[in-house]
Write the structure tokens for this entry.
Amino acid sequence: MAGMLAPAGVLAPAAQAADEPSSCAGSPAVTPFTDAVQQPPVAAPDAPGHYTLTAEKGVHQFYSQWPAVPSLGYSTANAAVSYLGPTIATKKGTPVDVKLVNKLPAKTDMFGFGEPDTSNGIVMHRHGGLQAPASDGIPGQEIFPGQSRTNHYPNNQAASLLWYHDHADSVTSYRVYEGLAGFMPMTDNIEPLLNLPSGNFAKAFILQDKTFNAKGSLCYTHAEPEFFGDLPVINGTVAPYQQVAPRRYSFTLVNGSDSRFFHLSLKQVSGAKASAPKMTVVEGDSGYLLQPAAVRDLLIAPGERYKVVVDFTGRGRREWVLANDAAVPFPDGGGGADIPQLMKFVVDQPLTSPDRSSVPRLIRETNNLIPPALSLLTARLRTVTAGEIAPGMPLLGDATALRKFTDPATETPQLGSTEAWAMRNYSPDTHPIHEHMVEQRLVGRWPAVFDDKGNLLSVGAFQPPEASESGPKDTFVSPKNAITVWVGTYNIAGTSVWHCHILSHEDAFMMEMMRPLVVGSAPQTQLPRVLTMARLDRLVRQP
């Protein structure tokens, strides 16, 4: 099958008659783990507190044996345009402005992907950021070739794994696939005191999957409800390797794929047999876990982020692959190429100084001390739904109906209020649901049975979150045939969106799996009060 990688050998090409951008018949052969993974440059401001990101069409070499091919990216004052954008490092209490400049070609389908809108308008959304609606970067805020727009980020939130990506209406999936995305982490005064691996021992990896044409150019299509590539691409490099020393490292993982979930673990591929390096999740989407979670494997959905400390101590002269066994599509499979190996870690670097880093038993941050159950005391329960109006046509809705993006807003929290959202997913897919401009926590899940119209027939026993999901979050894995509940307080007024972060679902042109989110002054007294976990359990079981 195209996309199957092995520690050694060559990936056989799939049959392909011509270099046809719309066919995506299969990528050419590659020898995995040939190229070193690269870290994106760190953007320098062009003035104190001010960055300029210029979106441009450029070229990028995804694999050393292929030529450089057209892609999109961002340039800054100190970084030329390349696939993806430079890292913009921010700090709590230090506001920044980011000017987005559109230098894309005007009114053309740049890659022949059959885009539904070829005006080449772009939007930059700081995913997970607590910014005002005018700077949030949502559909309707597009700037077109030759235009610019400045977003203001107050940076009044705790350390968090923010990233940025294009969010233009109906073409978000195309723009992210073509390269308009990057990492924008937030730090604070607490984070440097944690003694986690840092500096050269902290790496960030944007995980994606792509398909390439015979000559190595990008291929992408919306011929199916989701898109699954047949090769792993990490920070813009196909199936790379990372050299490490026998010590602890901090790896930030960003799932920047269109539709692919990754279920990750470390598998040894060379050297004397040893147990797998210990992995500890210390941070999720929007902040640190109060109690770091030791894991053997980790599920990460499109749009989710995790920081994982991996301990290679005592494992020198060995090699490990970052393995993946998530079904495609998730969770049932049967719809795309498997990608069982993403990248390789080669433990061959000298340990030049003692490793004095550590993983704290507790990480007390400003946003992780209040447990979700305590937030329920003041919360009201809002029921939302995910379903299909026809096979391959998923939509989101409220408690009464599935709705299109253009339908009037039905999710209208009151400013300053706390709401628990119960996502009833009766679609055939697991959806990662993301709300803009609000920080939340996962309460848990209930298995459920629905009829084909979404009517609730039965509800099973409550399932608490995985330990790795216990921190502040903004993107929630919402399994099919389940009710998933998260809770948060709405402290930013105005109109934004909530949506599935499977980008092909978000984008489905006029039928987007995306809905308005309007935070205003109207009390939501029609929603029941939650108060306790016991009462929440009773409420989610009501038809």
